[in-house]
Amino acid sequence: MSVLRGAVAAEWTKLWSLRSTWWSLAGTPALMGLMCLILGSSVASDNTNEITTDDQGVVSVSGVAVGAVDLVQFVPLTLAILMITSEYATGGVRGTLQCVPPRGRMLLAKAAVAAAALFPLGVLSGLLGTAVAGFALGEWGRFSAADTAFDALAIGGYLVLISVFALGLGTLLRSTAGTLTTAFLLVMAVPILLDGTDAPLLEHVADALPSAAGRIFMGGADDASYPQAVGLLILAAWTAASLWAARTTLRHRDA
Amino acid sequence: MITMRGLTKRFGDRVAVQDLTLDVAAGKVTGFLGPNGAGKSTTMRMVLGLDRPTAGEALVGGRPYAALRRPLREVGALLDAKAVHPGRSARAHLLAMARSNAIPARRVDEVLEMVGLTAVAGKRAGSFSLGMGQRLGIAGALLGDPRVLMFDEPVNGLDPDGVLWVRRLMRSLAAEGRTVFVSSHLMSEMQQTADRLVVIGRGRLLADAPVADVIAGSSRNAVRVRTPRPDVLAARLAAEPGAEVTRSGADGLVVTGVPVERVGLIGHEAGVPLYELSAQEASLEEAYMELTGTSVEYGVTGR
């Protein structure tokens, strides 16, 4: 156990010694605030303009923050991806494995550090986004302390799981650009494409993708086809599968 | 102590390291020589458990690297000086390494002082020159105060002062009873630093012997003779077992396979006057070129 603690301490030190980490950390709540301002204002203006078909009425303020995660997630996602792909880019992964030879332990340490950094970041961003959305919505916002607390925690949980999923992906693919592209396609583009089709099978596939499962888990889906808890389980399964595949590959691949 | 038993690595159908069996002993500097692409770095990576051997095994202190609980405290290695995140400071880089193996943080400042990087410890590694990068890599190798040290081309990019410093460091580490395994393509460097040489070519072991033996084994060790009657002397020398005689100029002979004393006696017995009689010792560079040249020419020369 103490050797795992050492590996985690090393990853923790590495994470905070890079300027890019601080940019990502500042960027996540900043983008969240901006997105919530735009989304909140857009709801308010839709409700008050002359067109009545686009009216959404009173909406949950923390729900706006959940909606903003679709875009905001790419900042922490990139941070988690860089934790491994930057080491492949410089060759530093060999040094990492000299310090911590068991592949699974090295990966687990990175995942733990990503989780420890991104969970509070997600919660804080969710709270900030809710506050900004409340300001932008004004009378069109519905605030509930319980909803806000749940949604903020859910955003933190979602960012951890999707980022660790991406960390596994980055370990498999090694290249920063390749991993970012793949993550973008899987998290953003493919769900939109599949949603556009009318084939029921493809819609089921779309519902099972990590970002769709995450949206249902956070309660951000309008037409959820399964309960929130199932969304959490599906997302966690994606994350576990990604880590498992990454560990298996690391064990067989030359560093 | 590093042990390799039948260590083999193939990438597809290309053989990088072929059936390498050797012991790298403690208390000595062992030079690891070979042309580019001979398999030196691959061998070192296998010792560190980074590359998986196709066959055979590499052990450090009798155990595979991956089985070491706190590996940096037992094996220090400098593989690639550029393998540091350019945005991370030298101190943070070493501190992360130290934490991974429960090495006290004050040791980081100690090794920074040892390699002379204290003044730039807070600077981003990306701004370092190649020589500073090498010093940082050496600091990382020394961090855990390990019994076994491996350096891949440690003097690359160092200025003359730095080269001298590395040479003294290697010697003092070995004098403390540590195992020092250092690869290089600089023969002159090895001649001054190493006690023992391991030479590989095309992944195969060509020589594993003390430096003096490698030089003594070279066919470039020759005796040079000048005499007014070279034909007579050449005929007498040719009768000696193992002798090879070549003419050199009008009155010169170059003789291999016969000790210098014996050449003098034969000249005396034949009544041939000698103008010059001198033993010529091959340089390590020549001995090395001969060893690896053979490996390239014929592909296989096991020893």
Question: What can be said about this structure in brief?
Answer:
With 255 residues, chain A is mainly alpha-helical. Helices cover 82% and strands 2% of the residues of chain A. In chain A, strands 1-2 form a two-stranded parallel ribbon.
Task: Write structural notes for this entry.
The complex is a heterodimer of chains A (255) and B (303). By secondary structure, chain A is mainly α. Helix content of chain A is 82%, strand content 2%. Chain A is built from eleven helices and two strands. Chain B is an alpha/beta fold. Helix content of chain B is 35%, strand content 27%. Chain B is built from ten helices and 13 strands. Chain B has helices spanning 40-47, 90-100, 106-115, 130-142, 160-175, 187-193, 211-216, 230-238, 260-269, 284-298, and strands at 2-11, 14-24, 28-33, 55-60, 75-78, 148-152, 179-184, 196-201, 204-210, 222-226, 244-248, 252-256, 276-280. In chain B, the strands form three sheets. In chain B, strands 5-6-7-3-8-9 form a six-stranded mixed β-sheet, sandwiched between helices. The two termini of chain B are 22 Å apart.
Number of E-state strands of chain A: 2
Number of helices of chain A: 11
Question: What is the CA-CA span between the terminal residues of chain A?
Answer: 24 Å
Q: Could you spell the SSE succession of chain A in H and E letters? A: HHEHHHHEHHHHH
How is the CATH topology of the largest domain in chain B named?
Rossmann fold
How many domain units of chain B? 2
CATH architecture title of the largest domain in chain B = 3-Layer(aba) Sandwich
Helices and strands of chain B, in order, run as: EEEHEEHHHEHEHEEHEHEEHEH
Q: Rg of chain A to the nearest angstrom?
A: 19 Å
Decide which structural class fits the backbone of chain B. Answer: alpha/beta
Q: What is the typical, i.e. mean, pLDDT of chain B?
A: 89
